[in-house]
Amino acid sequence: MTGNILGERLTLISFGESHGRCIGMVLDGCPAGLSLSESDLQIELDRRKPGQSIITTQRKEEDKVEILSGIFNGYTTSAPICAIIWNRDSDSKPYEVIKNNPRPGHADYPSFIKNGGFADYRGSGRFSGRLTATMVMGGAIAQKLLKYSLGIETIAYTTQIGQISYNSLSYEEAKLNRYTNDVRCPNPEIAEKMKSIIIDARKSGDSLGGIVECISVGLPVGLGEPIFSSMESDLSKALFSIPSVKAIEFGSGFSGTKLKGSENNDEYTISEDNKIITKTNNSGGILGGLTNGMPLVVRIGFKPASSIAKKQKTVDLVSNSECDIVVPGRHDPCVVPRAIPVVESLVSFILADHAIRWGLIPPVLSDRKK
Known about the structure:
CATH architecture: 4-Layer Sandwich
Shape: globular
């Protein structure tokens, strides 16, 4: 099985379960000589961890990362980097009660069949959003590697919760303001409306979905490996690994299907600094599976969180009969706000993997200790 491994030259192995002893990752293929510490990972993990506000799960996890290998004297050595987070506040009792009743919207039933009833059902086990912390660990390293080696930056932010949405601001405004509120929306007025409807959904025992927009800048022309490892292909594979993701579009996406070719095509021009650019960016920075030097723009659609307090219909796997279920436990009424650093991490990881594959990032960095 290779379902727990992401990447080709830069590889990420995710391990652990939601209510197991720990969760963690092994990152292999990182060049030697990158200045790295636990604090580099902790900054991103703190943005994802639970219990930060009224609109997230109240599970209290410090999510303090420990790096076990791959770092010596403050620099990467090219050896595999292993990092873990201990689970401190798991409560498995509610899951014992419903272990034979698959929750609507969850992977309980297909996982039960695939694994012959042996899968860890506590807190959704390997299917839990808690495992996105392992993605953030690897992505935090990728972000620093890209920034240092190529000057590439990636930001993500909330553009829609339920029926509340807004038009994107400039890249710099979004970068500056995306983490200034609980919903991670750069527009403060819209952010308050989004927070309000999430609170209302929680009070009624329900949940909401939404959309995250992600932009990467500073990309070279030609990054990607068509046809089966095109930039869209690999990004989509990574982003669909985030629980609750059900839709992805690049550039004009679905709205582009309503346009004519003359309206959707991005015409070329010469910039003030004598670079070839396009007048518009309906392609989202990707043509033929290759980056074209324009900002890479991808939007990710998240379904409403599946764990809700409302009574729903399900079945009993033992008696093979229909029954009702009210999902117990502590859950996010909307996963979108905590998904922002996860999206940034996975996009950065794929970009870093492709940069290494193309030879843009060397096996030893000049930042190494003399």
